[in-house]
Amino acid sequence: MRHISKSFGQVKANHNVDLDIYGGEILALLGENGSGKTILMNMLSGIYFPDAGSIEIQGKPVTIASPRDAFEHGISMVHQHFRLVNVFSATENIVLGLGESEGFNLKAASEKIHAICEAYGFDVDPNQKVYEMSVSQKQTVEIVKLIYRGADILILDEPTAVLTPQETEKLFAVLRNMRNDGKAIVIITHKLHEVQEISDRVVVLRKGENVGEMVTAKSTTQQMTNMMVGHQVTLNIERPTPVDTVERIRVNGLTVRDDEGVLKLDNVSFSAFGGEVLGIA
Description:
By secondary structure, the chain is α/β, with parallel strands linked by helices. About 30% of the residues lie in helices and about 30% in strands.
C-alpha cells in the first residue's frame, strides 16, 4: 500500500500511509483506539475505497472496490463481529455464496474443510450449527471460510478480544502454522504482550499515520508504547489505597437462569464501595 489516505468529513482517518505485507510473516498493526488501524485494513479488504494512494499485489497495481475484488486477489478479513448465519452449520456457512459448482455439494465441502483443519490444526465440526458454538469456534469457522475460498492474505481485527487465554494460545498455534505455509497474516491489536508473542514485525499507526515499524524480536513493549503515543510512557501504575470507602451495593447469592433454563450466574456475592474502582474479570 502506498500513500493511502482516507477522510470522513473533516476527520483524517488515514493520511499518506505506506504499508508492506509479506507472505510467510505475521505482521502486527499496532496503535491506540482511533489510530486508523481497522480503517486501513478495511480499504485493503474492499469495505472502504481510499481517497488517494495505490495498492499493488505481487508487484502489480490493483483496484479493490469491494470485498469481492479483495477475495479475487486472495485478501480476506475476519472482523470483530462475525458474519455467520446462526441456524446454518459450519459447512453451510463456509460455502454460502459460492454458487452451484461448490455450494451444493456439502459432502465434498465437508471433506475439503476437514483437510484444511488437518493441515493447520483447526478444531471444527463441519456439521455443528453456529448457534451451538462458543465464540472461539465461531471465529475458527470464519478463518476456515477464508482459507476455503483461497485467501493468502488474512487480516484479523482484534482476534483475541473475545477469547480466553487458552483459546488465544490455540489461535496463535494455528496462525503460526498458516505463516509457515507461506500465508501473510495481519493482526490488528493494541495488546502488547500478544504482539511480542505472535508477531514477526510491528507497524505502528498514530493519528492515522504510519509512524514506524520494528522487528518484534529486537523490540521491547516500552519502545512500542512510546511509538504508539508519541512520548515516553511509564508503565508502572501507582495504585493508592482507597480512602473512606462506603458500601453502596451488596449482592448475596445471586443466581440467574436464562429463558432456556441455562445457568448464567451461580451463587454470586460481592460488594461495591463508593470511592473505589471495582474490576469484574
